[in-house]
Amino acid sequence: MNPNRDGRDRKSDMVIDLKEELEQARVIAQKLQQDKRELTTDAKAARTYRDEIEMLKVQSGKVEKLEADVIKYRQKLEDTEYLKKKITVSE
Questions:
Q1: What span, in angstroms and rounded, lies between the C-alpha atoms of 9 and 2?
Q2: DSSP states along the chain
Q3: What pLDDT was estimated at residue 3?
Q4: Taking the mean position of all CA atoms in its chain, how far away is CA 86?
Q5: What's the mean pLDDT in 27-44?
Q6: How far apart are the first and last CA of the chain?
Q7: I need a labelling partner for 34 at 20 to 30 A (CA). Which of 9, 11, 50, 59 fits?
């Protein structure tokens, strides 16, 4: 057996193994980069949704106030109608 050849074979095997590991690491790195892009996109969408929710909460508060005003004005209208009828009856 040739000791130089055995050494070269082992080195060749090591080089092949390292190339395979490098390729696997590249694949993993690409997957992680894709995951990062997706997470960044999801985070932006989440911020947009959060902002929309805040805006809707504000609008909801305004709607509730307006609904309360409508109820109050309806009651005043009913009171006015009642007083109007009372005045016309007493005339």
A1: 11
A2: --HHHHHHHHHHHHHHHHHHHHHHHHHHHHHHHHHHHHHHHHHHHHHHHHHHHHHHHHHHHHHHHHHHHHHHHHHHHHHHHHHHHHHHHH-
A3: 61
A4: 59
A5: 98
A6: 132
A7: 50
